[in-house]
Design brief:
This protein has 195 residues and is mostly helical. 72% of the residues lie in helices and 3% in strands. Strands 1-2 form a two-stranded antiparallel sheet. Strand 1 and strand 2 (175-177) form a beta hairpin. Residues 156-166 and 172-183 have low confidence and may be disordered.
Amino acid sequence: MWWLIPIIGLLLGAYFGQYLNIEIPALMIKYLSIGIMAALDSVFGGVKALFERKYDSVLMLSGFFTNALLAAALAYIGDMLSIDLYYAAVFAFGVRLFSNLSLIRVYIIENQRIKKQQRRELREARRREREAGDHADGQNQDSLLGQDGVQDDPGFTQDDEYANDSQYIGDDGFTGYKAGNVWEAVQADIGHHDA
């Protein structure tokens, strides 16, 4: 919402300038024009610095006052010498204004292109994830089908098959015993060795 403050200030300034009959003396017109150009130069420089991620309010304000004072001093000295020195300030501010404005335009266009490319890449990544998920679901369904074409229970293990037996052959090929039937297994093993 902070961006509304300059817009409100601009509207109020335009309103007061239009409807309040403030007479500006002819001698002050040069200084007013230089002040307006210094303000615009500072605003465009600040916007450019925002896009470059180098914005510093102290630098912007000090630049504004320094440039405005130098331009006013040139205009005053020119008036004293009967030379239009303020044209130098107007030319310098004009060059900087157009330069900053062109850089701001380039930054805006580049940011829009980058955002558009990122959105395109995000859509492509989501599409690939969906395709990979669909492919993985298809493989999982195929792997659940047994040799007889009937879907097996994915939670079914060899332990479940031998849950009622005390002895079973493990995945490694060795005979193992259920923990719940350890005493029976030991007795069976002893009986097996005796025979």
